[in-house]
Amino acid sequence: MIFVNLPVTDLDRSKAFYEALGWSINPLFTDENAACVVVSDEIYLMVLRRDYFQTFTTKQVADPATTAQALLAISQPSREAVADIAGKALAAGGSQAREPQDYGFMVQHAVQDPDGNVFEFMWMDPKAAEQGPEAYMAEGGQEG
After folding, report:
1. Distance CA 32, CA 44 (A)
2. Residue 71 CA to chain centroid, in angstroms?
3. Model pTM?
4. Taking each helix axis from N to C terminus, what angle separates 79-91 and 11-20, rounded to the nearest 10 degrees?
5. What are 81-139's pLDDT values in tens digits?
6. Closest among 52, 43, 48 to 5, alpha carbons compared
7. Count of CB atoms within 10 A of residue 26's CB?
8. CB neighbours of 144 closer than 8 A, spacing ≥ 6?
9. For 41-52, how does the pLDDT look when each residue is reduced to its tens digit (9 = 90+)?
């Protein structure tokens, strides 16, 4: 399992944003300081109020609205699913981090949550994922 901790300025806004993507909040690990967002059986986001996040580190907490600490790529089951979840993110108050990318064997749509944390929703052709992009291209795939 992976737990990704993210600093946020408005916990209720963050919970609403992530629920709008179709993810759920685990109430057992949610309080006034943090919320546990269930992305899948293996992936969880811990969205933490910035002041609470600071208690977990001696380093300065980066402001994701102005700096990039990490880009979180989350695989989707299809090209259509990438477009769907990115659309949900934009409709829920997120913003486009960069233009969508289509490489033929892989598509990516990078969006920011309302705090500026970047999620790259992506899909890769199974053949390319297993054997590399060249295998996809060799069987007639085309770059986009």
Report:
1. 18
2. 8
3. 0.87
4. 150
5. 999 999 999 999 999 999 999 998 999 999 999 999 999 999 999 888 888 877 777 77
6. 48
7. 12
8. 102, 103, 104, 107
9. 999 999 999 999
